[in-house]
TrEMBL record:
It comes from the Bacteria. Keywords: Methyltransferase, Transferase. One of its GO terms (molecular function) is methyltransferase activity. Residues 60-153 form the Methyltransferase domain. This is Class I SAM-dependent methyltransferase. PANTHER family: 2-METHOXY-6-POLYPRENYL-1,4-BENZOQUINOL METHYLASE, MITOCHONDRIAL, METHYLTRANSFERASE. One of its GO terms (biological process) is methylation. The keyword Phosphoprotein does not apply. The keyword GTP-binding does not apply. Its EC number is 2.1.1.-.
Length: 258
């Protein structure tokens, strides 16, 4: 799971007993060598899908970490790109990474729940960040994304199909969440990181209530499950001026697997 360049067990223990912000500050130098980073295969498939639907103007990587999502945006956006995160350590690593030619990048330290921007972005992406928000915080987070998008702008994030009930993968995810809940019940400050707190169906319904028209694009690179549903989708939430219901057809309205 971890490469030799990744964090030692003792380092992970210290990080897990810290706040989310402090934990990621400590993890930042070795984050790209952990399984917490979004795989390159998902990033590349996202680029391919966005190139077909673009080009886009300005882009924002929400909870950018070490900047993998910023590299996605620089391939699909013609104008400026911004990465925002509340971890100083992550932003320092992101700034230090060498990048090929592309739009200018701005790095901003801010809490995603209080973004310091107006409606100035055509595309917002996020990779693996929603597990750091409690379900009660998501409406506010979606309101912030809606606020910073221009009309017709899109909020895009990959969504992996949940593992089969009773499978080892599901047991591992549920076990991880259980450990984190026990940790947060007995230790302060809390470290919010859950894999199953945000359910697939609740995610798209919350976005629709927040003023987005939600569709799902299958990523064919990852194939389909036995029931024919995609293994990995892009959730694409388009900003509307009023909350509207997405039409129940095609990939735009999948069956809620939860």
């Amino acid at each position: 799971m971890f490469s030799p360049e990744g964090p030692r067990l003792s380092e992970l223990a210290v990080q897990a007993l810290s706040s989310v912000e402090r934990g990621y500050d400590l993890l930042a130098p070795k984050f790209d060598h952990t399984p917490f980073r979004t795989p390159d295969s998902v990033l590349d498939a996202t680029v391919a899908a966005l190139l077909e639907s673009g080009p886009y103007g300005t882009g924002l990587d929400l909870c950018c970490g070490t900047g993998a999502g910023v590299d996605v945006l620089r391939q699909v956006c013609r104008d400026g790109v911004t990465g925002v995160d509340f971890s100083t350590g992550m932003l320092e690593v992101a700034r230090a990474r060498r990048r090929p030619e592309g739009p200018d990048v701005s790095w901003v330290r801010a809490d995603a729940r209080a973004l310091p921007f107006g409606p100035e972005f055509d595309l917002v992406v996020s990779f693996g960040a929603l597990g750091h928000f409690l379900p009660s915080e998501l409406p506010g987070l979606f309101a912030q994304v809606h606020k910073v998008l221009r009309p017709g702008g899109r909020f895009v994030l990959p969504v992996v199909a949940p593992p089969r009930p009773g499978s080892p993968a599901q047991a591992m995810l549920l076990g991880f969440d259980a450990v984190m809940r026990v940790r947060n019940a007995v230790w302060r400050p809390p470290f919010v990181m859950y894999y199953r707190a945000v359910r697939f169906g609740g995610l798209w319904r919350g976005l629709e209530r927040g003023g987005f028209r939600v569709t799902f694009w299958a990523l064919p690179e990852f194939g389909r499950r036995r029931d024919g549903s995609p293994r990995v989708r892009l959730l694409v939430a388009e900003k509307t001026e009023k909350a509207e219901k997405a039409e129940a057809k095609g990939e735009g309205r999948p069956t809620d697997p939860d």
